[in-house]
Design a protein that fits this description.
By secondary structure, the chain is α/β, with parallel strands linked by helices. The chain has 11 helices and 13 strands.
Amino acid sequence: MKIELKDICFSYEEDVNVLDNLSLKLSEGEMVAILGHNGSGKSTLSKIIMGLLDPSSGDIYIDGEAVCLGGAIDEAKYDEIRGKMGIIFQNPDNQFVGVTVQDDIAFGLENRRIERSEMIKRVQKYSKLVDMEEYLLRNPENLSGGQKQRVAIAGVLAMETDLIILDEATSMLDPKGTREINEMIKKLKTLDNKTIISITHNLEEAVFADRVIVLNKGKIVLDGAPKDVLKEKDILEASGLKLIDGLDIISTLNDLNIKNKEELINALWELTFKM
């Protein structure tokens, strides 16, 4: 899915713009991490892309078609397009509706009246992709936080959407759950033609993206490849993103079982920042 935003403004309070004349383009198949401190506008941006919030002004184009002009959303067009979008929220407990894992993964498919044979096929395919095929008959309430988010991801994948948004998907998870979801994010990146947006305060997720966008006070202050964004220390710190002290990195690396150069490089990238 291709997305273009032009001069988007949004405010919850009069004269206070959460998004301030923001413009960006997202390409089909691109994985983009959107970073910023609390209140920077990143979650508001995801809701506007989904059509869950109306911008105060600006234009939105999805796959080249205007769905919002001058802040006025075309609801008929957006209703059709939303079926091609999926979002995973930060609290996994708020996303479950089924009695079992397989019921939950199939919930969206049932609403779309997908044929049962196709439904079974997709549930099996995507539960396997997120390593939850052995839990299909389990009650979601008995799963860990990381497992719940993997089920939520499977439910979105089963809808075979063109856009996947992860909105702070690891913020309520423990370190083990966070690692599980980060592994899933790596897998998502391998899926053909899926546009993925990761709204996050966790640089561990951002470093696996094709592109990193940093927001501060509703404006884009950095936009580029992770390694290029990493170099802009002053801008990152001014945006509320803080580098980890070198001693913290060394101490953490000593606790890891690094086996080769590739693992070392990945570990260093994951530890480079903290929010």
